Amino acid sequence: MIQVENEQIAGIPVLHISKSEDADKMLPTIIFYHGFTSQKELYLHYGYLLAQRGFRVVLPDAKLHGERLQGANPEDQATYFWDVIETNITEFPLITEELIKEGKADANRIGVGGVSMGAITSLGLLGQYNDIKVAVSLMGSAYYVDFAKELSKYALAQGLTFPYDVDERILALQKYDLTQNITKINNRPLLLWHGKKDDVVPFAYSEKLYQTLVEESLADNVEFIIDDNAKHKVSVEGMLHGVAFFEKFL
């Protein structure tokens, strides 16, 4: 039986999922991040499928989302989009360290994954933490600086105002931008899944990342799956590819 606990880890609201008979065992562990304006509960299907295969899965609520909404509206979430991602990145070790300390997570078998904003988070994490063994990006972008410039240009054209200096905020993203130091991938397994017709997170970012990794001879353990017809929605096949990738490498 699959056990789902709504709890807090390191003060962060999460759904904590595993087989009930393995709940207190040390398991390979996946932290899986939800998308923009979403919440952890809407990604339970990923947690269920992964837990079925013997993983411990943690679905956190991102800042200004789900249980942490704090009255934020979509405009607030858009204004602080990169703050949300940065908070995901800085909170990641708090979650994993607590699980490792409790003997529930295998420190040598930690994976990260996510959809859209969660995929962007996962690619940023891969560049920050060497203890991550596997990453799955479903419709993400590792090009933080380039994507931030594109998003801010669009937002300003739509009349959104920012209560901070946009150029300074973008400059601060460089340290999380995997493409600024691509060798940090260090031949770790990475799955990139993206729909060619994505009108939210451009497909070109995943394509460019994969091409760069190939050119730099860093793509031995990288798989790039293209869905020719998908827009900004992960297909069932894409979801199952992500699950199978974790099962193969973690």
Spell out the key features of this protein.
Rossmann fold; 8 strands; 8 helices; 250 residues; alpha/beta
Summarize the structure.
The protein is built from 8 helices and 8 strands, in the order βββαβααβαβααβαβα. It has helices spanning 44-52, 74-79, 81-101, 117-128, 144-157, 166-172, 203-215, 236-249, and strands spanning 2-9, 12-19, 27-33, 56-60, 105-115, 132-138, 190-195, 222-227.
Please explain how this structure is put together.
By secondary structure, the protein is α/β, with parallel strands linked by helices. It has one domain: Alpha/Beta hydrolase fold, catalytic domain (Rossmann fold). It is built from eight helices and eight strands; from the N terminus they run βββαβααβαβααβαβα. The protein has an eight-stranded mixed sheet, sandwiched between helices. Helix 3 (81-101) packs across helix 4 and helix 5 runs antiparallel to helix 6. The chain is globular, with a radius of gyration of 17 Å. The two termini are 22 Å apart.
